[in-house]
Amino acid sequence: MEAITIRRAETADVDALDTALRHLSDAIGDPHGATPDQLRDAGFGSHPAFRAQLAEAAGAIVGVALYSPVFSTVRAGAGVYVSDLWVADLARGAGLGQRLLAAVARDAAAIWGAEFLKLVVYDDNDRARAFYDRLGFTASRGETTLALDTAGFAALAGRQDSPR
User: Taking all residues of the chain, what is their mean pLDDT, rounded to a whole number?
Assistant: First the structure.
């Protein structure tokens, strides 16, 4: 494989970013709800909600990491949450996942002052879990990941403050 370069995604990369994220969704059996327009607005609009690192070889995207800032009062500082990490089959085994996460860590430290990295791995993804274990990630004990779906979020956002 040719040399792989890693760089931060730009607005012009939205279609390639969408394609890479679709590959990830397909690989793990998730639906892919985001459209290129949604990625453009969320990542490159006036208030970006994420940043992304792209890995390229011979002009083709062979890896991606999508991430956002977080803040923890427990850790007393800023961190970064990696929501998506994908490496193409042809680029696996060459340390690209680690290189992408390192690029995320450097960028997040520079722009947000990040001092830690969080991510979620599916319980049934043994290959990914082994990769993260090799890098020194540990499971957060005593935590359960919870989420509000779109309807629940809208309902919560629509509630008015009222005394109890």
Answer: 92
Instruction: Report how far Cα 31 is from the mean position of its chain's Cα atoms.
Output: 16
H-helix or E-strand containing 82?
strand 77-87
* 140 in a structural domain: yes
State how far the Cα of 123 lies from the Cα of 128, in Å rounded to an integer.
Answer: 10
The pTM for the full model equals: 0.89
Question: With contact defined as beta carbons under 8 Å apart, do 125 and 85 qualify?
Answer: no
- Nearest CA-CA partner of 105 in 69, 57, 133: 69
**Do residues 121 and 128 make contact, with C-beta atoms less than 8 angstroms apart?**
yes
Assess if residue 129 is contained within a domain: yes
- The total number of structural domains that make up the chain: 1
Residues found in the chain? 164
> Does residue 156 sit within a domain?
no
